[in-house]
Amino acid sequence: MNDQQLLRYSRHIMLPEIGIEGQEKLNTAHALIIGAGGLGSPAALFLAASGVGTLTICDNDTVDLTNLQRQILHRTTSIGKHKVDSAKSAIADINPEIKVVPLQERISAQRMDELVATADVVLDCSDNFNTRYALNRACVKLRKPLVSGAAIRFAGQVSVFDMRDSASPCYHCLYPESAENEDTRCAEMGIFAPLVGIVGSMQAAETLKLITGAGQTLNGKLLLIDALLSGIRTIKMPRDKNCTVCGGRH
Predict the structure, then answer these.
(1) What pTM, to 2 d.p., does this model score?
(2) CATH number of the structural domain 3-236
């Protein structure tokens, strides 16, 4: 790292759990973020500010006025622009050293495998079950750590599915795929703006810990947030040995 980088990341470097070695790991890491909305916004901003060297951001949507209540990557002047382009611009303002790969596309299963294969950590900041299941299958197949977040109304959750650990559950263990699963969207149910900031920031924190090896992650655990009653609890989440996606792993 040069002098400017040592200064920029000095507060991380001062932490013995991270230090120079950990910061260098961040600077050379590649995170894949699926979704540049409410969750992807704080996650991307904190990863960029923290020095994660490459961020691939996938989202096929454009910025809408209703997004601005909670999607802090975007500005009023971004309305009508592709979210990934808006995200790249915002990240450049915070940390121009970060390489941002904006992908404005709907991702097929094969494409998902290609993207996951190149990443060190994957963040699921999407808003639909189809994407979540496809991303989970790719991470299980390629043994990549997946940081999952979700939020609706006043309820949020965060978990880590670290496929490098043979005892880790996958997303399918938590929510088995079935015809009964229905997507619940903000447009229909509403969302408390700071909640996505909390969940997305937690996703960024778990990602940084996975990259640096600092502390313990939420692997095998589910963090539940009740923003209305100010409640937070963590529950254990064992692997389902009969899971059709990861159950055959040893």
Answers:
(1) 0.94
(2) 3.40.50.720
